[in-house]
Amino acid sequence: MKWLIRGGAVAAWLAVSALLVVGTANLEPGPGERPADAFGFGVVALACLALAAAWRIPVAAAGTEAFALLLYLGFGYPDGPVLFAGLVPLFALGTLRPRRLAYAVAGGMAVIVVGANLATGGAGVLDLVFVGWAGVAVFAADALRGRRERAAAAAQAERDRVLGERLRIAQDLHDSVGHAMAVINVQSGMAEHVIDDHPEVAKEALGVVRTVSGTILDELNAMVRLLRDDSAPLRPAPEVADLPALVASANQAGLAVTLDLDAPGIGQPVGGAVYRIVQESLTNAAKHGASDAAVTVRADENGLRLDVINEVRGPGPDVPGAGIRGMGERARATGGTLTAGREDGRFRVSARWP
Q1: Would you call the peptide bond into 269 cis, given omega within 30 degrees of 0 as the criterion?
Q2: pLDDT in tens, 61-110
Q3: What SS3 state is found at 212?
Q4: Which one of 66, 81, 218, 260 has the largest count of C-beta atoms within 10 Å of its C-beta?
Q5: Which of 277, 328, 327, 284 has the alpha carbon at shortest distance from 306?
Q6: CB 287 within 8 A of CB 322
Q7: Could you tell me the maximum CA-CA distance found in the chain, to the nearest angstrom?
Q8: What phi, psi does 263 have (nearest 5°)?
Q9: In the Cβ-directed half-sphere of 15, how many Cα atoms lie within 13 Å?
């Protein structure tokens, strides 16, 4: 394919060059004009060479074309097809280089053509035609550049959207799997501890493990289908209204959680961020051995506030982990702020949305 493209470009250049040479050879010089001679054909050949380099080094090609036009017209040769050889470098220049440079070079070429013909007394309608076509070449290149820039911006926006969606899926997977594994860890540990003395309690704990693992497997399967097939049905994103079910799941896992919820009308994306922050906070509480937690979600005229407070056991990490960083990113991405740390002997996660 590349050889075909290059072969077509070479054929086009040869055809244009032949037209320039043949057209120059058939010009009839007017009064006071110099007939085409060896020097004139040499200048035309220089213009043809500049055409060949127009798309590789457009600035040098445009400068060479301007110099060739200055020589051709300055020595009094009759106006001819060589005048329009400069349009190709102008178009290439406007497509590949800054707009201001292309407009400046086009203006310079127009000045050279008109000025040289005025100096030799040969100015005419063809000069105005050249000026008009030089402007058309630059404007057309500018329009093509603008179209390419818009297409590139749209493609970049789509790539950013896809990347953002992948990051969101990764965060959701981290939160969901982390929560499920924390519940499974607590329940399986309790089942192992009481299976000899209280088999009915162990059976109940294993039932919770089965339910939670089935739920997370369904969620993983849904996400995998979504990644493989864009037409796969989407599961609704969790929101504030799903918090009671989340708290019930945490209570089933053995973490005594209370919920104070008074936030009507909170939709996506803030509602999804609230849900995931609560989910990650309860996961961390269970993972670090807490026995209880209190969740407060309230909305008033000052905005929305979320607090998750749980028991602290052990010294805990000095540096926030990936979970806390992820919660902060979710809050900031939806216009809120988040803080997390020890307070009065307990661990508090606080998020605010104005």
Answers
A1: yes
A2: 887 887 887 787 777 777 777 777 777 788 887 787 777 777 777 777 77
A3: helix
A4: 66
A5: 277
A6: no
A7: 121
A8: -145, 70
A9: 6
